[in-house]
């Protein structure tokens, strides 16, 4: 870890220029210890009043410093946005959820082992250096939206649920703005080091959830062990039924792309239709049409199809039995 | 930099490098080696301490950011001659072997039981609304942030269930 | 006085059962337990000498070649690159230090230098950013890319397996693969070295102090008498701390050079690079049987790997020659010399992966032949060791199978794919457990003090195995003292040299030495009583012979000291010694995602005398959980281009969590083995892992019909065999 100067933020308006923001620190310190990132200055924002969950219109405003555990257990979230509680509870460990914050979680970096290893070439760490993951161990890499420069995935769970809930990110800075979560994370393209739209001098202050849509909400996460592991694939689903037909479908996918993945074509196919295996297969076909395997991660294509089938059956009241 | 840590009920002024984690401050500066370093990256739970009553990974917390919070380590929970109920149950159930993950397991379990008491759900809870039975599956999921390579898991869960039952009976 | 015993013959006299104190075997709490649960037990990196400096190892960023030069480290006290620094860890029981010379790189991640600074933070930064220039070399890193060696001593054959296969009613010929695996003990390797003149004390995480002292003295070029090793508490070993490693040698060199104590603790990533891995294996198994399920042919062809020049190779087929009967048999042991990290012992080297795969093959054969898997095993248990005709020292496999089947409810098992709950297929599987048994030379000193307490001293270690407790119990039993009147001092080379902890031989080897030391003391008490030792009863601090009763404080003038010295002897050769058991698992396999959950798991074990029912059970729980890891989650992945360990932290290398392990059940079969010394106790630390994974894998097949032959059985491999 490189030496840095440490500041404690007095207010959102008064963040030292060029300083890297630290809140929960669960991923930042992890990466700083390996010198994957090496900021010269840190600013601690944990004492700023951004830790409240409060109504906003018919929706909910979640402060950037609300801890994952508090958010998962929040009565309104549990009642109105259960997919978010479920996604949070499927992530990390009790200890990490007590530390990790809402804003920080959106800024979580990839778990690509080549990104984590300074001996290896990585376009994220060192733009233009090349990607050692391609041709290496690729078991947990992206099948959707990757590029020749980067095949890393966004590893989080919370953001996948937020994506299905049409969340909006509130950003403060020189010109305060709100960005739909859909647009917040970027695909790697030829600039995989640029992961979000957040600019220097900007800070996430909150995540806004629109009015609850009800429906059946599921978060299905498939991983290599029963707990405390990153997703191989995950599915966040918010599905409404009306008169035996699908009236609302929001489906987001984790572990498969550089950002929480969502495909409007999949959802529009489902709308107004009666649930059936044939329909769900068609949905999976559409979802996976652009999918591309990189060696070992080829299994994610059938695995994502299977996870989607199970989630849709479950959310639409069909049997999932063996 | 000069900081003060509130630790196990006592204030400790310290001069630390800003890079010093809470874990290294405890182990290197204060000689409180009960909090263990197993991975230094939040991947094993051996460094679990309680901050304002909540379990956290001391390895991913900067010492300077822990200022102003109440920190409880394993040394603050009990002594060899005066063990906490959880410590005693770990001993009686052989909820450890090498003992290296043990302080983290015990601190974690202490915080975890508070979380259940506060009505927090878990990944394996059927309902998000509680209340939650202290089943093997519930406790195991909630304790999964604490790895034990000796794999005393079976005994650890039994120890926690026993200790929690004792607490519930005391309260009743 | 020292009482010596070489185990040349049987011990039919159940002396421990005749003692009066009644503590041996009892499920007593761990002696050191209160220190561990309160965070007061101090491990390797937990001493705080004055003026301590911190060292961090610098690692090679190429798989092979020469280090040309190493740059400066601003802010550091020293950058140390000493030709005595070692390239990889010593193997267990090595009598010399491993290959030294950090200017040569043999694998990616090898230690090539040490940076020392006033603070850990400064040392870590300097070690991570120091400039190194190399002259790299091309080397093979894939075991299947080279022509393997076939060490003549490790091949064996009798009859003609090919012919047996051709003529068999049922013949199975399949290939399995297991990945590199890591011990991943929770305490990373660490050492604190401090010199006093030309004498050095090193506090380190080590399993076998007496051989570690030889290795370290050789590595440092000093006499053994100038070196003291301390390992009072060891945060898990599982083989990874059998031999000295880079951090302890570097700490000693640096401390000498700087004239102040130096601590070097490996990071978790360094542990993955520098501790021995269990070699990946390719195992071809051939099984031939007649229509009734009697085996006629057994073939076990193994490919493992390690670095050029390293002697240890994973003895995968170690138990194959004696587990089952068959006239035609062949073992092929091939070794690929490649430049992945050094291979070495990880818990139950050989059987952990060898028995696991073999027991999967037996399950497949049972399936093929339409015979119940338990019956298939029962039909093929030999009366004597098939390859040599030697008798077994004891043999409990059949009993473990029958007892297990009854306790687990094996008769409720349904045919493959016939049981489901919700979206989960449910299945049951079983496997035999077998592990070779060994003794090692071991010494201990016991001192009985006039006030009625005793002190046990040996350089034996307790790596979580329960050594403190069982040695205390043994002394208490033999000397007639309440257990809390015995103090046990371990982990210090100033005490008599013990076997160390490894190969499951620690408890029996060191236990017998304590037994002998106590017999010596009993002899002296008997003399003072004027009776034969055999007529002496010691209980609760009182000595009794006939109608004479005296307190120990009357009999002991100051102290009585006895030493015990155990050596393995003729029974090592005259009898095949092994421990036996059976594993049982019930799993759920998700119909959609291929995730596997172990719902129930049980082991039945026979290991001779159980010295402490509580700590023995814990050893088995640990082994069985390792088996879950082998079956389902653990793989150290190597980069195909440079061989480096890719899954080199605890987020990527998946050891089982709490949620992966159900409430496990353990049963012991009562047993006394006469050929393993007067304790009649055998090793136990590894039996629980041997075959455990097979029970899980076989249960997966019973649940959903999928055979996974490339371990671990992660969701991708399950869904590959499932209907869409």
Short description:
The complex is a heterotrimer of chains A (322), B (172) and C (724). By secondary structure, chain B is of the alpha+beta class.
Query: CATH superfamily name of the largest domain in chain C?
Result: Aldehyde oxidase/xanthine dehydrogenase, molybdopterin binding domain
Query: In percent, how helical is the residue content of chain B?
Result: 25-40%
Supply the CATH architecture of the largest domain in chain B. Answer: Orthogonal Bundle
Spans of chain B of 5+ residues with little confidence (pLDDT < 50)?
Answer: none
Q: Count the DSSP helices of chain C.
A: 18
E-strand count of chain C = 30
Uncertain runs of chain C are none
- Distance between the terminal alpha carbons of chain B, to the nearest Å? 48 Å
Q: Overall pLDDT of chain B, averaged?
A: 96
CATH architecture of the largest domain in chain C: 2-Layer Sandwich
For the biggest sheet of chain B, the summary is: 5 strands, mixed
Backbone CA Rg of chain C: 26 Å
Compute the number of structural domains of chain C.
3
Largest interface: B-C, 66 and 64 residues
- The number of distinct structural domains of chain B comes to 2
Morphology call of chain B: globular
Secondary structure tally, helices of chain B? 6
CATH fold descriptor of the largest domain in chain B: DNA polymerase, domain 1
Write the layout of secondary structure elements.
The complex is a heterotrimer of chains A (322), B (172) and C (724).
Chain A lengths: L4 E4 L11 E3 L5 H6 L7 E4 L8 E4 L2 E5 L4 H6 L1 H6 L1 H8 L4 H6 L2 H5 L51 H7 L3 E5 L4 E4 H4 L18 E7 L6 E8 L7 E12 L2 E10 L6 E2 L1 H7 L6 H12 L11 H16 L7
Parallel strand pairs in A: 1-3, 2-3
Antiparallel strand pairs in A: 4-5, 5-8, 6-7, 6-8, 9-10, 10-11, 11-12
Chain B lengths: L1 E6 L2 E6 L6 H8 L18 E4 L2 E4 L12 E3 L1 H4 L7 H8 L9 H16 L18 H7 L10 H19 L1
Helix pairs in contact in B: 3-6
Chain C lengths: L1 E6 L7 H4 L14 H5 L15 E7 L5 E6 L7 E3 L23 E2 L5 E7 L2 H10 L2 E5 L19 E3 L2 H7 L2 E9 L2 E2 L7 E7 L2 E6 L4 H12 L6 E4 L15 H13 L3 E4 L2 H7 L2 E2 L2 E9 L5 E12 L13 H4 L4 E10 L13 H19 L3 H7 L17 H12 L11 E2 L2 E13 L5 E8 L3 E5 L9 H13 L6 E4 L16 H24 L7 E3 L2 E4 L2 E4 H4 L3 E10 L2 H4 L3 E13 L5 E11 L6 H21 L31 E4 L23 H13 L10 H5 L5
Parallel strand pairs in C: 1-27, 2-14, 12-13, 17-18, 22-23, 29-30
Antiparallel strand pairs in C: 2-6, 3-5, 3-7, 4-6, 8-18, 9-16, 10-15, 11-12, 11-14, 16-17, 19-20, 20-28, 21-22, 21-27, 24-25, 25-26, 28-29
Helix pairs in contact in C: 9-17, 12-13, 16-17
């Amino acid at each position: 870890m490189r030496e840095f100067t440490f500041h404690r933020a007095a207010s959102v308006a008064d963040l030292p220029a060029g300083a890297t923001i630290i809140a929960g620190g669960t991923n930042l310190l992890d990466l700083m210890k390996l010198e994957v990132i090496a900021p010269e200055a840190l600013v601690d924002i944990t004492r700023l009043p951004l830790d409240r969950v409060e109504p906003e219109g018919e929706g909910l405003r979640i402060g950037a410093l609300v801890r994952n555990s508090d958010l998962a257990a929040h009565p309104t979230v549990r009642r109105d946005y259960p997919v978010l509680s479920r996604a949070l509870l499927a992530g990390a460990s009790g200890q990490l959820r007590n530390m990790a914050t809402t804003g920080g979680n959106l800024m979580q970096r990839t778990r690509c082992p080549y990104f984590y290893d300074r001996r290896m070439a990585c376009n994220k760490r060192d733009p233009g250096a090349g990607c050692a993951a391609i041709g290496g161990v690729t078991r947990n890499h992206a099948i959707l939206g990757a590029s020749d420069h980067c095949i890393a995935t966004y590893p989080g769970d919370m953001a996948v649920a937020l994506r299905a809930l049409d969340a909006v990110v509130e950003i403060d800075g020189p010109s305060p703005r709100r960005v739909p979560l859909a647009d917040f994370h970027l695909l790697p393209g030829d600039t995989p080091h640029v992961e979000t739209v957040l600019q220097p001098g900007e800070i996430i202050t909150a995540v806004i959830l629109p009015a609850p849509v009800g429906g059946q909400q599921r978060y299905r996460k498939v991983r290599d062990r029963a707990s405390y592991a990153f997703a191989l694939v995950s599915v966040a689903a918010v599905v409404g039924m009306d008169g035996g037909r699908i009236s609302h479908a929001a489906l987001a996918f984790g572990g498969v792309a550089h950002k929480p993945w969502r495909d409007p074509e999949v959802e529009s196919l489902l709308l107004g239709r009666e649930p059936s295996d044939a329909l769900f297969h068609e949905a999976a076909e559409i979802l996976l049409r652009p999918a591309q395997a990189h060696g070992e991660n080829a299994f994610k294509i059938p695995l994502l199809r299977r996870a989607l089938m199970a989630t849709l059956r479950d959310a639409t009241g069909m049997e999932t039995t063996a | 930099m000069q900081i003060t840590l509130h630790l196990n009920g006592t204030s400790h002024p310290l001069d630390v490098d800003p890079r010093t984690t809470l874990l290294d401050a405890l182990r290197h500066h204060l000689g409180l080696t009960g909090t263990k370093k197993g991975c230094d990256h939040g991947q094993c739970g051996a460094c679990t301490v309680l901050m304002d009553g909540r379990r956290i990974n001391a390895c991913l917390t900067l010492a300077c950011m822990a200022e102003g919070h109440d920190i409880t380590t394993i040394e603050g929970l009990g002594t060899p001659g005066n063990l906490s109920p959880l410590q005693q149950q770990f001993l009686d159930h052989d909820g450890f072997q090498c003992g290296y993950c043990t302080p983290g397991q015990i601190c974690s379990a202490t915080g975890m039981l508070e979380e259940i008491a506060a009505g927090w759900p878990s990944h394996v809870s059927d309902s998000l609304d509680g209340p939650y039975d202290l089943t093997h599956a519930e406790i195991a999921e909630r304790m999964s942030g604490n790895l034990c390579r000796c794999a005393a898991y079976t005994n650890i869960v039994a120890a926690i269930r026993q200790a929690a039952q004792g607490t519930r009976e005391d309260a009743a | 006085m020292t009482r010596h015993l070489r185990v040349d013959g049987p011990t039919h006299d159940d002396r421990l059962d005749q003692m009066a104190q009644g503590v041996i075997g009892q499920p007593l709490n761990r002696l050191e337990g209160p220190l561990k649960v309160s965070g007061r037990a101090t491990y390797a990196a937990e001493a705080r000498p004055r003026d301590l400096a911190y060292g961090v190892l610098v690692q090679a960023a190429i798989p092979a070649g020469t280090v040309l030069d190493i740059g400066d480290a601003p802010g550091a006290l020293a950058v140390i690159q000493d030709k005595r620094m070692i390239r990889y860890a010593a193997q267990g029981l090595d009598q010399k230090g491993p290959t030294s010379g950090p200017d040569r790189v043999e694998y990616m991640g090898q230690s090539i230098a040490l940076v020392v600074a006033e603070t850990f933070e400064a040392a870590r930064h300097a070690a991570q950013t120091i400039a190194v220039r190399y002259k790299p070399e091309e080397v093979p890193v894939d075991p299947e890319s080279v022509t393997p060696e076939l060490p003549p001593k490790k091949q064996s054959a009798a009859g003609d397996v090919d012919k047996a296969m051709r003529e068999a009613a049922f013949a199975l010929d399949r290939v399995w693969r297991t990945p590199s695996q890591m011990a991943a003990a929770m305490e990373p390797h660490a050492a604190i070295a401090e010199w006093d003149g030309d004498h050095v004390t090193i506090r380190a995480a080590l399993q076998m102090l007496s051989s570690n002292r030889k290795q370290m003295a050789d590595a440092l070029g000093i006499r053994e008498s100038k070196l003291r090793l301390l390992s009072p508490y060891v945060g898990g070993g599982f083989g990874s701390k059998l031999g000295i490693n880079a951090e302890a040698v570097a700490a000693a060199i640096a401390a000498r050079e700087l004239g102040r104590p130096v601590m070097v603790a490996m990071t978790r990533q360094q542990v993955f690079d520098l501790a021995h891995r269990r070699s990946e294996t390719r195992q071809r198994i051939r099984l031939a049987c007649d229509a009734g399920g009697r085996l006629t042919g057994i073939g076990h062809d193994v490919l493992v790997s390690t670095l050029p020049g390293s002697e240890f190779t994973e003895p995968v087929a170690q138990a194959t020659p004696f587990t089952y009967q068959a006239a035609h048999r062949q073992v092929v042991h091939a070794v690929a010399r490649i430049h992945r990290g050094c291979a070495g012992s990880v818990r139950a080297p050989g059987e952990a992966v060898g028995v696991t795969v073999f027991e999967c093959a037996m399950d497949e054969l049972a399936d093929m032949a339409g015979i119940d898997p338990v019956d298939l095993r029962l039909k093929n248990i030999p009366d004597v060791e098939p390859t040599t005709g030697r008798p077994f020292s004891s043999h409990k496999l059949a009993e473990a199978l029958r007892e297990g089947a009854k306790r687990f409810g094996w008769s409720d098992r349904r045919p493959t794919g016939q049981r489901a709950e919700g979206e989960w297929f449910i299945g049951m599987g079983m496997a035999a457990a077998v592990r070779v048994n060994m003794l090692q030379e071991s010494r201990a000193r016991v001192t009985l003090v006039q006030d009625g307490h005793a002190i046990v001293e040996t350089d034996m270690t307790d790596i979580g195995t329960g050594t403190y407790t069982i040695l205390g119990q043994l002394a208490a039993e033999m000397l007639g003292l309440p257990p809390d009147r015995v103090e046990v001092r371990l982990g210090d080379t100033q005490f008599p040299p013990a076997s160390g902890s490894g190969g499951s031989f620690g408890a029996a080897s060191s236990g017998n030495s304590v037994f002998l030391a106590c017999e010596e003391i009993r002899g002296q008490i008997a003399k003072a009583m004027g009776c034969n030792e055999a007529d002496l009863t010691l209980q609760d601090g009182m000595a009794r012979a006939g109608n004479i009763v005296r307190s120990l404080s009357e009999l002991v003038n100051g102290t009585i000291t006895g030493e015990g010295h155990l050596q393995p002897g003729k029974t090592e050769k005259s009898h095949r010694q092994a421990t036996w058991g059976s594993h049982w698992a019930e799993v759920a396999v998700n119909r959609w995602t291929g995730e596997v959950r172990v719902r129930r798991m049980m082991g039945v074990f026979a290991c001779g005398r159980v010295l402490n029912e509580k700590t023995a059970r814990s050893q088995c729980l640990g082994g069985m959980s390792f088996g879950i890891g082998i079956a389902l989650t653990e793989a150290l992945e190597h980069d195909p281009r440079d061989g480096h360990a890719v899954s080199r932290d605890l987020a990527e290398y998946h050891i089982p969590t709490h949620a992966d392990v159900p409430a496990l059940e353990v049963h012991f079969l009562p047993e006394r083995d006469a050929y393993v010394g007067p304790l009649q106790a055998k090793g136990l630390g590894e039996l629980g892992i041997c075959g455990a994974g097979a029970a899980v894998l076989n249960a997966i097949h019973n649940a959903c019909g999928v055979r996974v032959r490339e371990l671990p059985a992660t969701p991708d491999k399950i869904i590959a065999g499932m209907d869409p």
